[in-house]
């Protein structure tokens, strides 16, 4: 039953994203959607996969938030009550649709079997095994190249992207 609630939260956040006009509210919506998606992946698949996916999304989200907040105009939030009412209505409607149109939850029984098999396979020792040292070295090299590329792109000589002198 909690899986259905998490899915309904994911769908409600997904449908609320076009209504977000501020970088802060859009970032919060994407962050919550990422967290819920990673929780779902952690339940269905390996928890390591959900954790790594969360770290990658949060890193990308921080970079995108920095760029968007530097370039976006300073606008005010619209009515918070309308966004909250839309969120609760989406959550309520999606939960009711799932409950009424899927009355038989026996198809979720495979999650128990998957959870017992998953604890045996995903202990984490496979990642740091001596046979996987080549993969770890390649991943380290890829991360180093990405770091150098980001530093090269972010090296600026002309100053900030948007000057704040006109706000005074």
TrEMBL record:
Enzyme Commission designation: 7.1.1.2
The UniProt similarity line reads:
Belongs to the complex I subunit 6 family.
Catalyzes what? a ubiquinone + NADH + 5 H(+)(in) = a ubiquinol + NAD(+) + 4 H(+)(out)
- Its name, as the record gives it, is NADH-ubiquinone oxidoreductase chain 6
Q: Which organism is it from?
A: Tegula lividomaculata
Give the first-level EC class, as a single word: translocase
* Mode of membrane association: Multi-pass membrane protein
Q: Which InterPro entries match?
A: ComplexI_Subunit6
Where does the record say this protein resides?
Mitochondrion membrane
Q: Which UniProt keywords apply?
A: Electron transport, Membrane, Mitochondrion, NAD, Respiratory chain, Translocase, Transmembrane, Transmembrane helix, Transport
Q: Which gene encodes it?
A: ND6
Q: Which superkingdom is the protein from?
A: Eukaryota
